[in-house]
């Protein structure tokens, strides 16, 4: 009789663990909580090492984030490393599916590289503070003129301080199974600084992470670094074609590494 009372105690956790919805919410909450906790550890280290906001803090962040993939059952298969073996500043562009992209980003993040991010991220508690300490450039997406002037300053800083910048040209997270049309900021940035663009493509997360269906399984992500696209001699008149060229190569790579076949030419860059 006593053993019967124990049954629900054993069954409830078992049912929860086998429920994919429970696993989804558990992994998501764990991810946020763990990143916030890692940031608590990283903040004093960064302040002691660099005295404040400094791109060199990205090394500390990269080191501390690298293990998180194992905790979530994720693996990355990186190809094209050789394209990142380049001196001097450049602009990295990549597709953006989820906040999980940070894990792949930290797998390949070169030295002296930081990101362009929406300004709202600075309010994300300890994660916001660590983003600021890591030299992330915050832009106001609602005010294009402000964003343009911040990015124009960033172009000058890139050259002066030999910095690389990582931009998500879709401008928002997207899990529609294709790339969104590209915004132009990343391309203006590269042209203004006259630095190359290095495209990096993450394969689709749809085989392990489905937000609407509340599924978050283990999975492997392919990360492909593509050859640089030169911008030397280009002007603002060339930005649209540069964006279209980058979009086309990244889209075909996305479909290829996600095991899909192109069904249409897809959206062209946003005009
Ligand atoms: C140890 C503990 C760790 C715990 C924490 C772990 C990690 C933390 C550390 C790191 C994590 C960082 C992760 C960061 C991820 C952040 C992801 C994001 O926030 S994505 C969202 C923000 N990013 C972007 O929006 C970039 C892309 N957007 C753009 O580039 C846009 O172009 C824009 C500059 C924002 C402007 O937006 P708009 O909608 O107006 O875009 P259009 O492209 O349509 O442009 C309109 C018009 O303006 C011209 N234009 C655009 N930019 C420029 C420019 N720089 N100079 C001149 N002109 C510009 C453009 O050409 C259009 O004109 P036209 O139509 O005539 O061509
Ligand atoms: C007290 C505030 C608590 C807030 C907690 C949020 C903390 C986030 C915690 C863990 C995630 C760590 C990685 C953070 C970087 C994620 C950046 C990101 O993916 O931002 C979304 C942005 O690209 C596009 O935004 P939208 O898709 O347009 O919307």
UniProtKB/TrEMBL annotation:
GO cellular component terms, A-Z: endoplasmic reticulum; membrane
An example molecular function term from Gene Ontology annotations: 1-acylglycerol-3-phosphate O-acyltransferase activity
Domain Phospholipid/glycerol acyltransferase: 90-205
Catalytic activity: 1-(9Z-octadecenoyl)-sn-glycero-3-phosphate + tetradecanoyl-CoA = 1-(9Z)-octadecenoyl-2-tetradecanoyl-sn-glycero-3-phosphate + CoA; 1-(6Z,9Z,12Z-octadecatrienoyl)-sn-glycero-3-phosphate + (9Z)-octadecenoyl-CoA = (6Z,9Z,12Z)-octadecatrienoyl-2-(9Z)-octadecenoyl-sn-glycero-3-phosphate + CoA; 1-(9Z-octadecenoyl)-sn-glycero-3-phosphate + hexadecanoyl-CoA = 1-(9Z)-octadecenoyl-2-hexadecanoyl-sn-glycero-3-phosphate + CoA; (11Z)-octadecenoyl-CoA + 1-(9Z-octadecenoyl)-sn-glycero-3-phosphate = 1-(9Z)-octadecenoyl-2-(11Z)-octadecenoyl-sn-glycero-3-phosphate + CoA
Gene Ontology biological process terms in this record: phosphatidic acid biosynthetic process
Membrane-spanning ranges: 31-48, 121-139
Pathway as given in its UniProt record: Phospholipid metabolism; CDP-diacylglycerol biosynthesis; CDP-diacylglycerol from sn-glycerol 3-phosphate: step 2/3
Broad EC category: transferase
Domain of life of the organism encoding this protein: Eukaryota
Family annotation (SMART domains): PlsC (SM00563)
Keywords on record: Acyltransferase, Lipid biosynthesis, Lipid metabolism, Membrane, Phospholipid biosynthesis, Phospholipid metabolism, Transferase, Transmembrane, Transmembrane helix
EC numbers for this chain: 2.3.1.51
Domain notes: The HXXXXD motif is essential for acyltransferase activity and may constitute the binding site for the phosphate moiety of the glycerol-3-phosphate.
NCBIfam families assigned to the protein according to its UniProt record, in alphabetical order: AGP_acyltrn (TIGR00530)
Family listed: Belongs to the 1-acyl-sn-glycerol-3-phosphate acyltransferase family.
Annotated function: Converts 1-acyl-sn-glycerol-3-phosphate (lysophosphatidic acid or LPA) into 1,2-diacyl-sn-glycerol-3-phosphate (phosphatidic acid or PA) by incorporating an acyl moiety at the sn-2 position of the glycerol backbone.
Name used for this protein in its record: 1-acyl-sn-glycerol-3-phosphate acyltransferase
Annotated source species: Chanos chanos (Milkfish)
């Amino acid at each position: 009789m006593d053993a019967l009372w124990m049954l629900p105690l054993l069954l409830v956790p078992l049912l929860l663990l086998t429920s994919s919805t429970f696993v989804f919410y558990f992994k998501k909450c764990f991810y946020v909580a763990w990143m916030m906790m890692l940031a608590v550890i990283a903040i004093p280290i960064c302040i002691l090492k660099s005295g404040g906001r400094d791109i060199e803090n990205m090394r500390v962040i990269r080191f501390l984030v690298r293990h998180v993939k194992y905790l979530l059952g994720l693996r990355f298969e990186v190809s094209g490393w050789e394209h990142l073996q380049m001196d001097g500043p450049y602009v990295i562009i990549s597709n953006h599916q989820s906040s999980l992209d940070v894990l792949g980003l930290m797998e390949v993040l070169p030295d002296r590289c930081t990101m362009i991010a929406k300004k709202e991220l600075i309010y994300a508690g300890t994660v916001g503070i660590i983003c600021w300490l890591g030299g992330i450039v915050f832009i106001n997406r609602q005010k294009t003129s402000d964003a343009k002037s911040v990015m124009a300053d960033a172009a000058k800083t890139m050259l002066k301080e030999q910095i690389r910048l990582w931009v998500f040209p879709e401008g928002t997270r997207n899990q529609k199974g294709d790339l969104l049309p590209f915004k132009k900021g990343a391309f203006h940035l590269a042209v203004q600084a006259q630095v190359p663009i290095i495209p990096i493509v993450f394969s689709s997360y749809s085989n392990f992470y489905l937000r609407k269906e509340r599924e978050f399984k283990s999975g492997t992500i392919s990360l492909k670094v593509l050859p640089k696209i030169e911008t030397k001699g280009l002007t603002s008149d060339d930005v649209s074609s540069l964006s279209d060229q980058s979009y086309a190569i990244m889209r075909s790579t996305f479909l290829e590494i996600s095991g899909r076949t192109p069904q249409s030419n897809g959206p062209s860059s946003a005009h």
